[in-house]
Each structure stands twice: as C-alpha cells, then as structure tokens.
Amino acid sequence: MKSVNRRDFLKLSGTTLIGMTFGGVALQAQAQEHLSEDDATAKALKYVNESTKEGSNCSTCMYIQGEAGKEWRPCAIFPGKLVNANGWCSAWVKKPG
Prior knowledge:
Layout: H1 6-30, E1 33-34, H2 40-44, E2 72-74, E3 81-84
Parallel strand pairs: 1-3
Antiparallel strand pairs: 2-3
C-alpha cells in the first residue's frame, strides 16, 4: 500500500473541495426543466412531486442542491432537472446533521 505524504494529501483535498464546489454550481446552472413524474428515470425511482413519507422529502435529502426555501431545486440524482422540494424518490437519503 502506498502512503500519501501531507503535501499530496492537501493537494488532493483541495482539488476535491474545488471540484465539489464547482460541480454543485454547474449542476445548479444546468438544471432548468421541472422533473415530470412521467420521466423514465423518475418512474424507475418512484419520484413523486408530493411526498407521502412522513419527514422524508426532497428538501431533507442529501442529493438536493441549490438555495433552501425554493420550491423547485436541482438534484444530483436527476441531472439537468429541477425536483419539487416537497417531492420524494426511492434514492432519498437523509441529509447529515
């Protein structure tokens, strides 16, 4: 197993952080169209615009992006689409914290 020195670790960490930051910005910039429940990927993941799961909706999911409080926001699961903050899909994972 190859060990990583401190300098390489810091470079890798900084690059990862920059990539995550710009990746989130790019995801927000690309997402424009509201996700339809009839979309093939949405159907496969059982996406709905209105969650029926107590305490589980897109606004509490770790994959949602964008500004909190907005009704429609980008989601990492559905690139290029906006999901309803009150929606839900089977990929839902609770936000940490």
